Amino acid sequence: MSEQTAPTTVPTSLWVERTGTREYIGRSSRGAEVLIGSQGVPGRFTPGELLKIALAGCTGLSADFSLSRKLGDNFDATIHVSGDADRENELYPQLDEEFELDLSELSEQDRERLLVTVQRAVDRACTVGRTLKAGTKVTLNFAVEG
């Protein structure tokens, strides 16, 4: 397959189902599940936490090819993401990511070059980060019985 030809895929369906008081389960048509709940509910992610994890995951996946090409397939990476909600305005005014990598085997010049390449890859390919930076229109419709 050439780099210009995208694989044909069926869009993944996503939904959440209520499982209890202030508890939901997120599901995908690929069989993935994530537990969602209010702050303080054990074993559950809050929606805000999932937003942050989506950002960090997108950053990692966007950088993975560039990093594995230079470091090999078995490199370690951890991306920490943080940011407090502004409860008065009901939004996250800032999210901060910290990408932990061991680049000690590279020269300083190779490290700098790799980090520029990784930043470009993330800026280009991380749709979650790009969407958060640009903002997005969200609509809500209701399918009501009765």
UniProtKB/TrEMBL annotation:
It comes from the Bacteria. SUPFAM superfamilies: OsmC-like. This is OsmC family peroxiredoxin. It comes from Nocardia arthritidis. The lineage of its organism: Bacteria, Bacillati, Actinomycetota, Actinomycetes, Mycobacteriales.
